[in-house]
Amino acid sequence: MATAAASESKAAVAVAAKRKPVFTKVEQLKPGTNGHTLTVKVLNSKTVLHKGRAASANLRQTKIAESVVGDETGVIVFTARNDQVDLMKPGATLILRNAKIDMFKGSMRLAVDKWGRVEVTEPANFTVKEDNNLSLVEYELVSIPTE
To answer: Residues in domain Single-stranded DNA binding protein Ssb-like OB fold (predicted)?
Structure first.
Protein backbone atom coordinates (compact mmCIF):
# COMPACT_ATOMS: atom_id res chain seq x y z
CA MET A 1 0.00 0.00 0.00
CA ALA A 2 2.83 2.38 0.85
CA THR A 3 4.45 1.87 -2.57
CA ALA A 4 1.23 2.82 -4.39
CA ALA A 5 1.04 6.07 -2.42
CA ALA A 6 4.74 6.75 -3.07
CA SER A 7 4.39 6.26 -6.82
CA GLU A 8 1.31 8.53 -6.87
CA SER A 9 3.24 11.31 -5.12
CA LYS A 10 6.15 10.91 -7.59
CA ALA A 11 3.68 11.32 -10.45
CA ALA A 12 2.29 14.44 -8.80
CA VAL A 13 5.81 15.88 -8.50
CA ALA A 14 6.49 15.15 -12.20
CA VAL A 15 3.31 16.98 -13.20
CA ALA A 16 4.12 19.93 -10.93
CA ALA A 17 7.61 20.26 -12.45
CA LYS A 18 6.11 21.60 -15.71
CA ARG A 19 5.18 25.06 -14.51
CA LYS A 20 2.69 27.38 -16.10
CA PRO A 21 4.30 30.19 -18.10
CA VAL A 22 4.36 33.63 -16.54
CA PHE A 23 3.34 36.11 -19.21
CA THR A 24 5.43 39.27 -19.51
CA LYS A 25 4.30 42.62 -20.91
CA VAL A 26 6.40 44.41 -23.54
CA GLU A 27 7.11 47.39 -21.23
CA GLN A 28 8.74 45.02 -18.69
CA LEU A 29 11.46 43.86 -21.13
CA LYS A 30 15.03 44.84 -20.23
CA PRO A 31 18.39 44.42 -22.02
CA GLY A 32 20.17 41.11 -21.46
CA THR A 33 17.11 39.21 -20.23
CA ASN A 34 15.61 35.98 -21.53
CA GLY A 35 12.96 33.35 -20.86
CA HIS A 36 10.06 35.68 -21.64
CA THR A 37 6.61 34.48 -22.66
CA LEU A 38 4.51 37.16 -24.34
CA THR A 39 1.25 37.49 -26.24
CA VAL A 40 1.72 40.06 -29.00
CA LYS A 41 0.09 41.35 -32.16
CA VAL A 42 2.10 41.85 -35.35
CA LEU A 43 1.85 45.41 -36.64
CA ASN A 44 4.14 45.10 -39.67
CA SER A 45 6.95 42.99 -41.04
CA LYS A 46 9.63 43.41 -43.67
CA THR A 47 12.16 40.90 -44.93
CA VAL A 48 15.70 42.20 -44.42
CA LEU A 49 17.67 39.16 -45.59
CA HIS A 50 16.85 36.31 -47.96
CA LYS A 51 19.77 34.23 -49.12
CA GLY A 52 20.57 30.67 -50.08
CA ARG A 53 19.64 28.62 -53.09
CA ALA A 54 16.74 26.22 -53.07
CA ALA A 55 18.46 24.31 -55.91
CA SER A 56 21.29 23.11 -53.67
CA ALA A 57 20.28 20.53 -51.07
CA ASN A 58 23.21 21.20 -48.74
CA LEU A 59 22.71 24.98 -48.63
CA ARG A 60 20.00 26.03 -46.22
CA GLN A 61 17.97 29.09 -47.03
CA THR A 62 18.22 31.95 -44.56
CA LYS A 63 15.34 34.37 -44.19
CA ILE A 64 15.30 37.17 -41.64
CA ALA A 65 12.49 39.67 -41.15
CA GLU A 66 12.15 42.55 -38.74
CA SER A 67 8.62 42.78 -37.40
CA VAL A 68 7.11 45.34 -35.08
CA VAL A 69 5.10 43.46 -32.45
CA GLY A 70 3.38 44.75 -29.35
CA ASP A 71 0.73 44.58 -26.68
CA GLU A 72 -1.26 47.11 -24.67
CA THR A 73 1.94 48.39 -22.94
CA GLY A 74 4.23 49.01 -25.93
CA VAL A 75 5.93 47.72 -29.07
CA ILE A 76 9.35 46.23 -29.89
CA VAL A 77 11.15 44.97 -33.00
CA PHE A 78 11.05 41.18 -33.25
CA THR A 79 13.74 39.51 -35.36
CA ALA A 80 12.06 36.56 -37.10
CA ARG A 81 14.21 33.86 -38.66
CA ASN A 82 13.42 31.27 -41.36
CA ASP A 83 10.08 29.53 -40.56
CA GLN A 84 9.12 32.31 -38.12
CA VAL A 85 9.07 34.83 -41.00
CA ASP A 86 5.95 33.21 -42.50
CA LEU A 87 4.04 33.68 -39.20
CA MET A 88 4.68 37.45 -39.12
CA LYS A 89 1.51 38.57 -40.84
CA PRO A 90 0.18 42.01 -39.85
CA GLY A 91 -2.78 41.60 -37.51
CA ALA A 92 -1.78 38.10 -36.37
CA THR A 93 -1.73 37.37 -32.63
CA LEU A 94 1.25 35.30 -31.51
CA ILE A 95 2.53 33.70 -28.34
CA LEU A 96 6.31 34.00 -28.09
CA ARG A 97 7.71 31.37 -25.73
CA ASN A 98 11.19 31.58 -24.20
CA ALA A 99 11.93 34.84 -26.02
CA LYS A 100 15.13 36.76 -25.33
CA ILE A 101 16.39 40.30 -25.74
CA ASP A 102 19.25 40.78 -28.20
CA MET A 103 21.03 44.11 -28.49
CA PHE A 104 21.55 45.51 -32.00
CA LYS A 105 23.34 48.85 -32.46
CA GLY A 106 22.43 49.86 -28.90
CA SER A 107 18.72 49.05 -29.11
CA MET A 108 16.65 46.09 -27.93
CA ARG A 109 15.35 43.42 -30.30
CA LEU A 110 13.15 40.53 -29.28
CA ALA A 111 14.06 37.09 -30.67
CA VAL A 112 13.10 33.44 -30.26
CA ASP A 113 15.93 30.97 -30.89
CA LYS A 114 15.87 27.17 -31.17
CA TRP A 115 15.02 26.85 -27.45
CA GLY A 116 11.80 28.83 -27.84
CA ARG A 117 8.64 28.74 -29.91
CA VAL A 118 6.44 31.10 -31.91
CA GLU A 119 2.77 30.08 -32.02
CA VAL A 120 -0.19 31.65 -33.77
CA THR A 121 -3.09 31.96 -31.32
CA GLU A 122 -6.63 33.33 -31.12
CA PRO A 123 -6.91 37.06 -31.90
CA ALA A 124 -6.27 39.05 -28.72
CA ASN A 125 -8.71 41.73 -27.63
CA PHE A 126 -6.22 44.48 -26.74
CA THR A 127 -5.18 47.63 -28.58
CA VAL A 128 -1.45 47.88 -29.21
CA LYS A 129 0.20 50.92 -27.59
CA GLU A 130 2.26 52.08 -30.56
CA ASP A 131 3.68 55.25 -28.97
CA ASN A 132 5.93 53.26 -26.56
CA ASN A 133 8.54 51.68 -28.86
CA LEU A 134 11.20 49.99 -26.72
CA SER A 135 13.42 49.49 -29.77
CA LEU A 136 13.79 53.27 -30.12
CA VAL A 137 15.43 53.55 -26.70
CA GLU A 138 19.20 53.58 -27.15
CA TYR A 139 21.33 51.87 -24.53
CA GLU A 140 25.01 52.37 -23.96
CA LEU A 141 27.32 49.88 -22.29
CA VAL A 142 29.00 51.73 -19.43
CA SER A 143 31.97 50.14 -17.74
CA ILE A 144 32.32 50.94 -14.08
CA PRO A 145 35.97 51.41 -13.05
CA THR A 146 37.16 49.20 -10.19
CA GLU A 147 39.74 50.44 -7.76
So the answer is: 29-120
Cα–Cα distance for residue pair 131/74, rounded to 1 Å: 7
Domain ranges of the chain: 20-127
Q: CB 76: neighbour CB atoms within 10 A?
A: 26
Q: What are phi and psi of 143, to 5 degrees?
A: -90, 135
Report the amino acid identity of residue 26.
V
35-80 pLDDT per residue, tens: 999 999 999 999 888 776 555 555 567 899 999 999 999 999 999 9
Which residue type, as a one-letter code, is found at position 106? G
Class of domain 20-127: mainly beta
**Cα atoms in the 13 Å half-sphere on the side-chain side of 116:** 23
Residue 12: predicted pLDDT: 46
Give the C-alpha separation, 42 to 64, whole Å.
Answer: 15
Q: Please give the residue that has the higher pLDDT: either 59 or 14.
A: 59
